[in-house]
Amino acid sequence: MNDDTLNGLLLDEEYTLTLGELSRACAMHAEWVMELVEEGIIEPRGAEIGQWRFAVPALYRARTVMHLQRDLGVNLSGAALVLDLLDELQELRQQLRCLDPERLG
Amino acid sequence: MEFEDYYEVMGVKRDATQDEIKRAYRKLARKYHPDVSKEADAEEKFKRLGEAYEVLKDPEKRAAYDQLGKNWKAGQDFNPPPDWDAGFEFSGGGFTGAGGDAQAYSDFFESLFGQRAGGFSGAQGGQRGFHMRGEDHHAKVLIDLEDAYHGATRNITLQVPEVDASGHVHTKKRTLKVRIPKGVKQGQQIRLAGQGAPGMGQGGSGDLYLEIEFKPHPFYRVEGRDVYMELPVAPWEAALGAKVKVPTPAGVLDLKIPAGSTNGRKMRLKGKGIPAKQAGDFYVQLKIVLPPADSEKAKAFYEKMKQELPFNPRAALGV
After folding, report:
1. What is the sign, positive or negative, of the torsion defined by CA atoms of B312, B313, B315, B319?
2. Got the DSSP string for A34-70?
3. E strands in chain B
4. Contact assignment for A26 to B192 by CB distance below 8 Å
5. Chain A environment of B179 (Cβ under 8 Å)
6. What are residue B73's phi and psi, to 5 degrees?
7. Which of A99, B105, B158, B176 lies 20 to 30 Å from B18, alpha-carbon distance?
8. Which domains are seen in chain B, by residue range?
9. Interface test with A, best of B158, B189, B209 (most A CBs within 10 A)
10. At what angle are helices A57-72 and A76-99 packed, to 10 degrees?
């Protein structure tokens, strides 16, 4: 094992992010993340803000919203809608792959 | 360095109005947005589009770009003429995409506008008492499915914008050697502490998030930790039962095919998916393949089956 090999931390199913970690990973303020929670785009565990913990998929969702806002000027409810449609699209593509593995690989 | 035709990238005429340029950007941005688009090279196209818009949306930058002349063609070898920008004031800052992602503009862009990135100076100077943690960066890492079974070490090359002593921005290649742990899934994140952007003052460096993505495989399909494959079998193997070899990312395994198996039958090799505390399963779907009737001997065999096997494949259709 070489010294220059980096060992990262795998953010697995059990890992959760704090509000601070999630905000930093999106390069956004905590207030912005709180807006996402209010909009129902991501759901933390924990009753009080200080105890909020986010499952790792929240990172993907929050970053997608950040990109949509920044690049396309989509507002929060629009971004929430896009996320739901993307989820549905992914599910349908998955089903299509099961039906027709030749076509989609 | 190659000339970039920003009008061509945005699909607008050279005399397009600012409104037309804005509309073209909005339309193409929706089409190529990497989070939404299914186009294969969406990310690259989106990046070029962002760069073109960065220049054309700003009347100052656009005017400076225009006076390079209209005889340049995309891809032509290009060096900016000396003092090409005399008389223009770039407001600087305004880098639309300069969010948390390490965004790299083309050399062409950097050579024309890079020096005026503005707002960066001072940042490196480390003003007294000013501390700020560096930004987190994000990147994708493509691995083989086999790497998820065995673990691996991968070299990852990132393009990082850097500001030199005179305030010029360059993109620098940075290569990291990263251990991919056994048992990773598509879409999972690996966090490398302190490998993001450097901080200011005594602020620590940001982190680097790597998103795992599997390369498409010619015969495996992955869902979560479960792996699927279609296994070709001969008609007699399906009919009479057989023991056949199955290639899995964990190595070649023996599979017992029960007699009387039909086409499309699904079989599960428990725990032979991606390893983990709760390992995934490996699913095999049988695909009966007919031997070709391409020799006298084979034709004679089919002929014999036709005569001796009372078999109507369309019985269920009532014909």
Report:
1. negative
2. HHHHHTTSS--BSSSGGG-EEETHHHHHHHHHHHHHH
3. 137-143, 152-163, 169-180, 189-192, 208-214, 221-223, 226-233, 242-248, 251-257, 266-269, 282-288
4. no
5. 5-8
6. -115, 145
7. B105
8. 1-119 (1.10.287.110), 129-215 (2.60.260.20), 221-317 (2.60.260.20)
9. B189
10. 120
Residue A10 forms part of a structural domain: no
Place of tokens 């929670």: A37
Give the pTM. 0.72
- For B130-166, what is each residue's pLDDT tens digit? 778 888 888 888 899 999 999 999 888 887 767 677 7
* CATH code of the domain in which A68 resides: 1.10.1660.10
**The two three-digit tokens of residue B294, written as one number:** 């391409």
In a domain, A5, yes or no: no
Decide if A59 touches B, using CB distance below 8 A: yes
Three-class DSSP category at A11: strand
d(CA B29, CA B33): 5
Q: What is the pLDDT of residues A17-66, one digit of tens each?
A: 999 999 999 999 999 999 999 999 999 999 888 899 999 999 999 999 99
DSSP H helical ranges for chain B:
6-10, 18-32, 42-56, 59-66, 107-113, 145-150, 235-240, 296-308
